[in-house]
Design a protein that fits this description.
Layout (H helix, E strand, L loop, with lengths): L2 H9 L14 E3 L2 E3 L5 E4 L2 H4 L8 H13 L12 H12 L7 E5 L2 H16 L3 E5 L8 H5 L4 H4 L9 E4 L14 E6 L13 H14 L2 E5 L23 E4 L10 E5 L1 H4 L18 H16 L6 H13 L6 E5 L2 E5 L3 H14 L1 E2 L1 E3 L2 E7 L7 H17 L2
Length: 396
């Protein structure tokens, strides 16, 4: 074992008993490169983070210039920092009118935590409604609204007064009542294996929340920033949430998250108590600079407009294979259902040995995750489809 691998195992806290151990020396575009120059198609984008691929020169330039001007100055919200202001202004320009106030944090989990606090403070209610097979992060509040008991049982007690509904079940919507502070939902479930609800269901959910005065939180940490073929997944349903959560690709490769609401709702965090939510590094200037560059590229180069066609190339090529039971897709967010965890793991191993990287889902281990950078070309989509088909042919 080489020295770097040995140090990785000895000194880096491990999250599983069998990490992938892929050593990366460089990343460029849609590729990761190993220490000997071996090339891998990155078909998971760091789990929907690297939407613009790796090493984008405009993002790198923005990071370098901001780092030269200043980095951390003060806890979030006290000083006027140009990158934070410009990012928030640009973001709200492309969002619906009611989503006009941005609270910047470090990550998706923090965005979830802030949004849950905001909903309870604004409504004065305590009940939170979440969904089975939902994933919202690993901090204690986010874990409390995760829809998988196996992931939670050894960390209890967690937040009280959380109710879980079945995703895409009309009947369950009646459990949202005047007691409910908020409903937190992924408009398309990510770790559940790209589960896409009906348009009618999401619209009925919006109506029910409005009827009983409950805030509707859309967790778009994985679906936002163009991943599903729209800048935000809520656009697919014609429904606007009260609070929107962003992270992952939002930072352009840098750590950044946000919860976005109306000025009226967000003002609840300014009093009783003062500083109702605070963060030291949230909205770090360098991360905001990267996010501005990323947002500019996504909007000006119309990258999102071509996402759906690219995803269709991969889905159509794989759906024909006899080992594929189903392909669930929203843009370049795909779940390829193989029916067994063993087949999924075999395909992942084949990919690592043959130049492409795919993954599985936390709550759907019978499907393969495919979520390449949005900049992947149509020809590259055809190439990786052929590579995956070779892998499907090779596994049992």
């Amino acid at each position: 074992m080489n020295v770097l691998r040995q140090l990785f195992l000895e000194h880096l806290a491990q999250t599983s008993e069998s990490p992938l151990m892929l050593e990366v020396s460089k990343a460029d575009g849609v590729f990761l490169f190993g220490p000997k120059g071996e090339r891998h198609f990155d078909l998971i984008s760091g789990i929907a983070v690297s939407n613009l691929g790796h090493g984008n020169p405009l993002i790198i330039k923005a990071v370098q210039e901001q780092a030269a001007d200043y980095m951390h100055l003060m806890v979030y919200g006290e000083y006027i920092q140009k990158p934070q202001v410009e990012l928030s202004a640009h973001l709200t320009e492309i969002l619906p009118e009611n989503l006009n106030s941005v609270y910047l944090v470090n990550s998706g989990s923090e965005a979830v935590e802030g949004a849950l606090k905001l909903a309870k403070r604004y409504t004065g209610r305590s009940e939170i409604v979440a969904f089975r097979n939902a994933y919202h992060g690993s901090t204690q509040g986010a874990l409390s609204v995760m829809g998988c008991e196996e992931q939670k049982r050894n960390f209890r007690p967690l937040l009280p007064d959380v109710r879980f509904l079945r995703f895409n079940s009309m009947v369950d919507l009646e459990h949202i009542t005047e007691r409910t502070a908020c409903v937190i939902i992924e408009p398309i479930q990510g770790e559940g294996g790209v589960q896409i609800p009906s348009i009618d269901y999401i619209r009925r959910l919006r109506d029910r929340c409005s009827q009983v005065g409950t805030l509707l939180i859309f967790d778009e940490i994985q679906t936002g920033m163009g991943r599903t073929g729209k800048m935000f997944a809520f656009e697919r349903f014609g429904v606007i949430p009260d609070i929107l959560l962003l992270a992952k690709a939002f930072g352009g490769g840098m750590p950044l998250g946000a919860f976005v609401a109306s000025v009226e709702i967000m003002r609840a965090l300014t009093n009783d108590p003062l500083l109702g939510h605070i963060t030291t590094f949230g909205g770090h200037p360098v991360s905001c600079a990267a996010a501005i560059a990323s947002l500019n590229i996504l909007t000006k180069e119309k990258i999102v407009d071509r996402v759906d066609a690219k995803g269709a190339i991969i889905a159509e090529a794989l759906a024909k294979h006899p080992k594929v039971k189903e392909v669930r897709r929203a843009g370049l967010m795909l779940a390829v259902e193989l029916g067994s965890f063993e087949r999924v793991q075999a395909l992942i191993r084949f990919g690592l040995e043959n130049g492409f990287i795919v993954d599985w889902f936390l709550f759907c281990n019978t499907a393969v995750r495919i979520a390449p950078p949005l900049i992947i070309t149509e020809e590259e989509c055809r190439t990786v489809s052929r590579m995956i088909v070779e892998g499907l042919n090779a596994i049992q």
